[in-house]
């Protein structure tokens, strides 16, 4: 959240998550999920210019990632596009990918132009 507040004129956000150590990955997401839950999410216009978000070959569908997508869709009022590129694990699991898409499509959007693409 700090980075988003630091760049109020940000128009494009690219998200890439990579880790070598699976345990570090789980621990990082555990810590981020706990942080996310404890924060008062006051946007104060920090997403007023954000138009495009891309998750680069890294979207795994963790609770944290889904919360981030939900937050962005629910607060970026000029959002035009979110491009979600699934991680290799999800890419080969059609059922999981389908479930993730179904979940994301139910998220509220404040921007009537917000489109979500998946690959």
Automatic annotation (TrEMBL):
Domain FBD: residue ranges: 46-84
InterPro entries referenced in this protein's UniProt entry, alphabetically: FBD
UniProt name for this protein: FBD domain-containing protein
């Amino acid at each position: 959240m700090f980075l988003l507040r630091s760049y109020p004129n940000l128009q494009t956000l690219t998200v890439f998550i990579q880790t070598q150590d699976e345990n570090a990955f789980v621990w990082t997401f555990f810590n981020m999920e706990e942080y996310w839950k404890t924060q008062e999410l006051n946007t104060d216009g920090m997403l007023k210019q954000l138009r495009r978000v891309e998750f680069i070959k890294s979207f795994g569908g963790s609770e944290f990632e889904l919360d981030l997508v939900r937050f962005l869709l629910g607060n970026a009022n000029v959002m035009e596009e979110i491009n979600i590129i699934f991680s290799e694990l999800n890419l080969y699991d059609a059922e999981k990918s389908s479930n993730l898409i179904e979940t994301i499509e139910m998220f509220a959007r404040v921007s009537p132009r917000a489109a979500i693409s998946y690959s």
